[in-house]
Amino acid sequence: METRSVGPLTFTIDFSIPLYEQIVEQIRHAIARGEIALGTKLPSVREMAQKLKVNPSTVVRAYLELEHDGLCEKRRGQGTFITTSEETVYQIKRKLANEALEAFVQTMRSLGIDQKTAQQWLKEMDWECKKR
Amino acid sequence: MQKAVELRHVTRRYGKKIALHDVSMAIPKGKAIGLLGENGAGKSTLLKLIAGIMKPTSGEIKVFDETPNWRIRERIAYLGDLSQWYKFQRIDEAIQYAANIFPHFQIEKAKEYLDFMKLDPQRKVEELSKGQTMRLQLILCLARQVDLFLLDEPLSGIDLISREKIIDLLIELLSEREVTLIISTHEIHEAEGLFEHVILLQNGKVVKEGDAEQLRVEVGSIQKVYREVFQ
Amino acid sequence: MTAFWSMVKKDYQMIFPKKYTLYAIAVLLFSISFGFLYLFSTVTQVPNATQIHWMYTWLLFALPGFSSALIYYEWNHKTMGWWLSSPYPHWWLIATKCTAMFLRTLQILSLIFIILNVNIYLFTLIKPNILGNMSWEVLILNQLKLMGEYLLYAPYLITLGIFGGVLNFSYIKFVSIPVWFLFGITSPFFIFRRIATMAKLNWDILDTSLWIIGSISLLLTFIFFAGSIYTIKNKMEI
After folding, report:
1. Which DSSP letter does residue B169 get?
2. Which of B24, B28, B143, C220 makes an SS bond possible with B110, Cβ 3.0 to 4.6 Å?
3. B with C: how many residue pairs have Cβ under 8 Å apart?
4. What would the pLDDT profile of B159-191 be if each residue is shown by its tens digit?
5. Which residue blocks in A1-132 are alpha helix, DSSP H?
6. Fold of B3-230
7. ipTM score here?
């Protein structure tokens, strides 16, 4: 796995997972974390493909998927831009958080931990993860 | 799926040796295809048959729905194991010659690519290193405005910088327009991200074939697919 | 430049790549001068074209070698992929090579003509009687006739070399044996014709008219040309 940065974005590409999914995921997270400002222009397909060493059509497919989510919009002749709608970003953030929470709950349940205990432990958890 | 190439029961022999054995398959149009396999698996033979520089011993090949002939070669750019450039020319002479010989050769594009590949047009072909020669040959091939590119081992036995530059040039080409690109290689890792479709050949037969992203879901990286097949 | 002529130019350069041209000319100059000196020292005269013909005649042996070298070049330098995958019919690919070789033949013949006659002229300055009772007109005319005759054989010899070269990289290599055998009979035949009077050869066959020889040579040219096309189309071992 190699880390490559393209403009404001940083990617870690793993060839054992579909490439377009990784590009979508990583851009999505970057937006959710606020690493790129709303309304920013995404790197061109060509630049993205060159930097990531992937087929341009993989990038096209990823951008289409992001557009479908409403996270990006294509402006004719200008390129693809990140949405300016904070509402959309909030929803995506919520969706990603929900996915993470669901996974968390699943794990807790498989360990036989009830909701109350889990909530208690969660409160005691060092949010910055400094101990590790 | 639209087809660029179709093979029906294609067999090719060299004397008693069988290079391709009863191969039937369709190669999709408008994609970057990785033709993978060990040395002697039949990759070069397959590309030569598609390029029409030799005929199958039996079976049928269709390239853009036609049996390979000299007219269809206007739409095919082939770079094979016997495609070294003429040593007595200078790089700029080579470009001019290619422009004279090949219909739809984009001379401006070729000059742009020379710059991109860091080659000095005044140098003689015989002075170039192996990697630089391959860069030049690739430029002469990719500057042709054709529908099908056949590249036989463009990454083997050359230096790292040249390999990276070649991959960059291929990505550049793919972002310019929709073409069908068939690359045979065993340097899988570097070209991994390029492939949209892969074909694995072993002893003259197709042993695995499919969409690259689909294979990543099912098996993992193309390198892993390759290892599983050939181990 | 059209595609055909630029390919001819490439083939033309390929016969003697630039870096060897100087050596080739030097060797040519040297051998001709030497040959002339030898003749001069033995017979003290330039009797007639029956002896200076050797300055030209060696070409009858070399031509097929030169033209098959054109095919060997493509193979040895691994450039055959470009040649065979270029978008032109096969007859065209063979025709450029034959044309290039024919142009080279013209070039070599004119070089010999110039160098040889300048040499003879220089000798007349030292020994004015060297030409004996032969006039310059006759000497030049003899040479021109001889060149014309050799140019008539040239297409046959060139295509023979190309065919032999192509066959060498095919499955039907064995066909090249009779081809080179034919070359082994015909080139001496051409020479015997030339030296018949001097060597007192009274063979009827040597009196065959040039028209018949020319026609047969053209027929063979056509056969070898077609044979080369058939071979690269169907029988190449690449």
Report:
1. H
2. B143
3. 75
4. 899 899 899 999 999 998 899 999 999 878 888
5. 19-32, 45-52, 56-69, 86-110, 115-124
6. Rossmann fold (3.40.50)
7. 0.91
